[in-house]
Amino acid sequence: VVVLGGAGDNRRYVLGRDLVLAGYSKRLVLIVPDVSEIKDARYKVPDAAVWADVFPRSSWGEAEATRARMEAAGWRSVMVVSDPPHMLRLRYTWGSIFRGSDMTYTLVACNPPWWPGWRWWQTPTAAGYVGDEVLKLVYYVVKYRFGS
Fold it and tell me: Among the four residues 41, 76, 124, 147, which has the most C-beta atoms within 10 Å?
């Protein structure tokens, strides 16, 4: 289970930790966790890997770093935990990074209190997040598909 950084709260972490504790995975990988998440993981999931040496500046960088670590460790699959409006861009990103490999990924969305599901446009916080994600997705398509 790979918990992506940048959430500002620990909902991603809690879901990732709980997936490991429930037996969905043997490993918990934290990318740019905060101190409380590290302490909790060391106590509850002693084999958790904290990637303190990985400071990706983007979701694309997180996917690249994860694929490189998976190849080095011989892992074939991961579960990737993030926020619901992030899923579309992650699908594009991870699909691009993993294309042509025999590795797989599964996206798992946490359930933050500000996310109203299919009524996201009715909440300013959720609507703003979706708008940001659409802009970032367009940027990714232009930069990584057509720009490189």
Answer: 41
The tens digit of pLDDT for each residue in 82-130 reads 999 999 999 999 999 999 999 999 999 999 999 999 899 999 999 999 9
Distance CA 65, CA 84 (A): 22
Q: Nearest Cα to 143, choosing from 83, 85, 96?
A: 96
DSSP string, 16-78: HHHHHHTTS-S--EEES--HHHHHHHHHH-TT-EEETT---SSHHHHHHHHHHHHHHHT--EE
How many other β-carbons are positioned within 10 Å of the β-carbon of residue 119? 10
pTM, full prediction: 0.90
CA distance 72 to 3: 19
